[in-house]
């Protein structure tokens, strides 16, 4: 997710309820990617927006969602971006058709590409390409994601592209011997912001960098706050036990901060503190189903 402000948090004297944790995470940021959203009746996203409206009265939130994706009719997911209307707007969207000759149906869940404009950021406009790979097909899907990147660059004539999501890019799903066959890894113009030694899993028994953020090109890379890309340890932040945290998600969200072009507030022109001079991007994996079914 992308955010200019980090002031949202637990109110003084308020006892945090476990069901409030997803809202706390989402309202930290200006753009938030939700994955594994299963909402066949189309009711969950309006309920989520109503919940965010009650939880955060300072900002108004909107969503943009992919179609339902998946090879099985009984199990389908959506990519959903939640964003603050005051700081970000959607300028275009594109559902990748996954019909490349010679490699038709490369993805279990085809990327949903969204172009955003945020006038206060250093780059102003950027494209986000989410992907939730199938663990058994991680190497092939990550390599095919490179074709999606090139297609989007040519289609929209932009270099400001970020790829993000639960890539399953670690532990047993992405073998070292296969990395040389993944163009998303071998192309030196692509910068992987979440390193291989990161842990994006909640369980203390695992240390795996499944969730990643990848930036295309130096221009976009320079617009990112150095060392800001990292997993967000929400159990530690909100004082949760491992068991409580697993009721929310078995993955940590990953986040990154984008620089803004000045130190004036986005709304009203008033000064802002150094802690609010960035835009934050979160990726929430494995949490969306719990969020949406609990509403």
Question: Sheet with the most strands?
Answer: 7 strands, mixed
Q: Topology as H/E string?
A: HEHEEEEEEHEHEEHEHHEEH
Average pLDDT for all residues: 84
Termini Cα gap: 21 Å
Determine and state the CATH class: Alpha Beta
Class from helix and strand fractions: alpha+beta
- Fourth-tier CATH superfamily name: Endonuclease/exonuclease/phosphatase
The tally of domains stands at: 1
Helical content stands at: 10-25%
Shape: globular
CATH architecture: 4-Layer Sandwich
Keywords: Disulfide bond, Endonuclease, Endoplasmic reticulum, Glycoprotein, Hydrolase, Nuclease, Signal
Subcellular location: Endoplasmic reticulum
Family: Belongs to the DNase I family.
Domain Endonuclease/exonuclease/phosphatase: 26-251
What does this structure look like?
- The chain is of the alpha+beta class and 295 residues long.
- It has one domain: Endonuclease/exonuclease/phosphatase (Deoxyribonuclease I, Chain A), CATH 3.60.10.
- The chain is 22% helix and 25% strand.
- The chain has helices at 21-26, 44-55, 138-156, 183-186, 218-222, 234-238, 242-248, 288-293, and strands at residues 31-37, 61-65, 69-72, 75-84, 89-95, 112-117, 125-130, 161-166, 190-192, 211-216, 230-231, 254-259, 278-284.
- Strands 1, 2, 3, 4, 11, 12 and 13 form a seven-stranded mixed sheet that branches. Strands 5-6-7-8-10-9 form a six-stranded mixed sheet.
- A hairpin with a 7-residue loop joins strand 6 and strand 7 (125-130).
């Amino acid at each position: 997710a992308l955010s200019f402000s980090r002031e949202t948090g637990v109110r003084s004297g308020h006892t945090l309820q476990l069901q409030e944790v997803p809202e706390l995470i989402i309202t930290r940021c200006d753009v938030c990617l939700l994955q594994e959203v299963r909402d066949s009746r189309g009711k969950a996203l309006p309920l989520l927006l109503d919940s965010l409206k009650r939880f955060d009265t300072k900002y108004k939130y909107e969503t943009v969602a992919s179609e339902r994706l998946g090879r099985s009719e009984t199990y389908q997911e959506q990519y959903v971006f939640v964003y603050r209307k005051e700081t970000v707007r959607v300028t275009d969207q594109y559902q990748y058709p996954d019909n490349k000759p010679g490699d038709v149906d490369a993805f279990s869940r085809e990327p949903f590409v969204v172009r955003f404009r945020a006038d206060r950021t250093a780059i102003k406009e950027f494209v986000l390409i989410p992907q939730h790979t199938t663990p058994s097909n991680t190497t092939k899907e990550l390599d095919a994601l490179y074709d999606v990147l090139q297609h989007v660059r040519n289609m929209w004539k932009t270099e400001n592209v970020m790829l993000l999501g639960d890539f399953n890019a670690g532990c047993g799903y992405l073998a070292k011997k296969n990395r040389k066959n993944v163009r998303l890894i071998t192309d030196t113009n692509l910068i992987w912001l979440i390193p291989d030694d990161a842990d994006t899993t909640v369980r203390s028994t695992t240390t795996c960098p499944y969730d990643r953020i990848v930036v295309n090109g130096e221009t976009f890379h320079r617009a990112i706050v150095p060392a800001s890309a990292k997993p967000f340890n929400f159990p530690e932040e909100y004082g949760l036990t491992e068991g409580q945290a697993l009721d929310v998600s078995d993955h940590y969200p990953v986040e990154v901060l984008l620089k803004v072009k000045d130190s004036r507030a986005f709304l009203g022109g008033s000064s802002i503190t150094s802690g609010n001079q960035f835009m934050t991007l979160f990726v929430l994996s494995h949490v969306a189903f719990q969020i949406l079914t609990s509403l």
